[in-house]
From TrEMBL:
The lineage of its organism: Bacteria, Bacillati, Bacillota, Clostridia, Eubacteriales. GO terms for biological process: threonine biosynthetic process. Its cofactor is pyridoxal 5'-phosphate. InterPro entries: Thr_synth_N, Thr_synth_N_sf, Thr_synthase-like, TrpB-like_PALP, TrpB-like_PALP_sf. Belongs to the threonine synthase family. It comes from the Bacteria. Coiled coil: none annotated. It comes from Ruminiclostridium hungatei (Clostridium hungatei). Residues 3-79 form the Threonine synthase N-terminal domain. This is Threonine synthase. Keywords: Lyase, Pyridoxal phosphate. The gene is thrC.
Amino acid sequence: MLYRSTRGNCSNVSAAEAIKRGLAADGGLFVPEKTVHFDNEHIQKMSEMTYQERALKILEGYLDDYTISELTDCVNQAYTAQKFGTEAIAPLHKLYDSVNVLELWHGPTSAFKDMALQILPHFLVKALKKTGEKEEIVILVATSGDTGKAALEGFRDVEGTKIIVFYPSEGVSQVQKMQMVTQEGSNVYSIAVNGNFDDAQNGVKRIFSDEDVAALLQDNGYKFSSANSINWGRLVPQIVYYFSAYADMLKNKEIEVGEKVNFVVPTGNFGNILAAYYAMQMGLPVNRLVCASNDNNVLTDFVNTGVYDKNREFKKTLSPSMDILISSNLERLLYLVTEGNSEQVAGWMNKLKNEGTYAVDQETKKKIQNVFWAGYSNDSDTLKTIESVYSETGYVLDTHTAVAVDVYDKYVISTSDVTKAVIVSTASPFKFNESVVKAIAGEGAVNGKTEFELLSVLSEKSGLTIPAPLKELDKKPVLHKEICEPTHMIEKVKEALNI
Ligand SMILES: *Cc1c(COP(=O)(O)O)cnc(C)c1O
């Protein structure tokens, strides 16, 4: 299996090469040249398998330059019951008769990024060996919260790697900040930047493109890489849980073999829902994919009109991990629905870069609408959804998942489609506890309390146990105290690497 660029201007590479490079040289994203197919019989067999076995089946088709024993090793190191607190890894929770919630937040950082970032480091280390790299890899990340912590946990103590994460000193929540400063591991550095997320991100971009730094790194046996969500090595493990959810529904006798289901996905960068689209292309019986956004509803407008327009106000919402105006992974969908018309895709992406907007043709729009339905939820509807689902069922949603549930309600009202549905849940309610407690216990329950005090409030109110990694967070020793100006990020990298 070879991988080509969505923009069509560079030569095809192996999976290991695609994972090592992240982005193609022409600025495009790597896509597999073929689709791996699963028929109903294969899918039915998955219902008897463990999550790890299901993962192996999906991965071996796409990462065919890795040996089975290498992939087994990756899967077994990433998806352990110890790290995920459950044998199921990605368990289903039955919410209503025909609606399940797929919980993707049992990993070490309590959000869905763990599903990919627990395994990517292992893919990457093996990719380096396979492609003859001798350097030690240095992962640089600028984060507004979830990704940085998930990357730190994923790369922690992974041989042959170091990871340096920069986060805005005042731009993350209390829980997120404590997660970052208490990070354990012999190869991890987390550094606050005196500024906002853009300052941190621009600083990281500057370091990546600084030739002197690259040369200095090379002289010292290091090489930069990134772990961002356009890497194929992050996308492919996300396909697994769609098959896994379906297999679990078969196992629970909730659906017949071949019966179609809907998936509802809270969306930001379009990575998670794109994995669902790949699963569908691969033969998973899917009826519709519901794309749920918050007030940053660029994707809602795009699916409904065919016009992508990021020239709009950026809004800070209660579902911050979806506060995004450029959904990078959409480029892969455009490539797929135009049947690999890379010239057209490159044209749209250039327009996006230069004008902030592009419009797809009618045929492309229709093809997208045949599969996707899109809607959005504002903060007030999101909170109401948390409250109503809690009072009806006792189940507690986080804000991101609540966006999905609210948009799903709108979908059912608008289409009357009652096909069985899976709501993809991307964060533990404990991670965004302030909004959640406000929704289920009222403003008064939140006033004057820190996020750490609210963990126990939420636990008492809901009867849920606080996820172990969050529980003692405020009592853990602070290991990373460094703070720097945006202009000094390069010096911090050099210090960390001793060069
Ligand atoms: C990253 C994230 C999302 C958005 O996922 P995409 O793959 O970027 O669409 C949704 N919810 C949470 C909690 C996240 O961390």
